[in-house]
Specification:
alpha+beta, six-stranded antiparallel sheet, 9 helices
């Protein structure tokens, strides 16, 4: 049995397992949070992320019944988090907190996060695991002093999104730029190829080119002296005369 807390995270209320679990502050990761974790892990695949550690670190659960008032009954599932589209809750395997599967998973993603940051950020000195662990531990201790339980989703996200103060990794910059491009492209209407060709042929859309051409003609006439300007005007009158002659119908020969 799990309940939705005031912090909008899910917490375990009751459990039917014979193994002793400390239910005081035992958190469980909901499907939305698990999907977000999987997305953040994807860049770590280039650094040798081991998927079996993710599968071993969490027990999958599916919703059996909605009990109302923010309480849900869950039942164990056999599906893999990475191979199914079913929305599964994830209970971290904390039977052995120091050397168990969840501890191995945390250690693994911390090492890979350090490698990724050292590759994407030009540090004066290489980042180490101790720096990340020390900073995260300080935050956990402050929460403990305040009497608030640390949800394990926050612990995982603090590692996968960790960036030292004053730095920002290149991959996060690229992601922000990509988001901005998508927002801009969403605001623009789509034009198919036929409409684009019709717009190109539309004379009313060429007023800028016509104005530029007229400006060039006016400039060129201004540069001519009086004699040359009279010759140009006579040539234009002759062209108009030729156009009138061509416009007249020709007489047909009689047979």
């Amino acid at each position: 049995m799990v309940r939705l807390g005031e912090d909008l995270n899910w917490w375990v209320d009751e459990i039917s397992d014979d193994i002793h679990w400390d239910l005081d502050g035992l958190s469980i990761i909901d499907p939305r949070q698990m999907s977000y974790i999987v997305d953040l892990i994807e860049p770590l695949n280039d650094y040798g992320f081991e998927t079996n550690l993710l599968e071993a670190a969490f027990f999958p659960f599916r919703i059996e019944k909605d009990l109302g008032q923010g309480r849900v009954h869950l039942r164990r599932a056999k599906e893999s988090f990475l191979d199914t589209e079913e929305h599964l809750f994830a209970l971290p395997n904390l039977i052995d907190e120091e050397t168990g599967p969840y501890a191995d998973f945390i250690d693994h993603i911390t090492k890979l996060r350090v490698k990724l940051l050292n590759d994407t950020i030009d540090f004066e000195q290489k980042l180490t695991m101790d720096e990340i662990e020390e900073e995260i531990r300080e935050e956990q201790n402050s929460n403990f002093i305040e009497g608030s339980a640390v949800h394990l989703f926050n612990e995982i996200i603090n590692i996968l999104e960790y960036v030292p103060a004053g730095y920002e990794s290149d991959d996060e910059d690229d992601g922000k730029a990509h988001d901005i491009e998508e927002e801009v492209s969403d605001d623009l209407p789509e034009i198919d190829e036929k409409e684009e060709e019709e717009l190109k042929k539309d004379e009313s859309l060429r007023w800028e080119e016509d104005e530029d051409a007229e400006g060039e003609e006016e400039t060129s006439l201004d540069d001519l002296d009086d004699d040359e300007e009279e010759e140009v005007e006579e040539d234009e009158e002759l062209e108009d005369f030729d156009d009138d002659e061509e416009a007249r119908p020709r007489s047909q020969k009689k047979g």
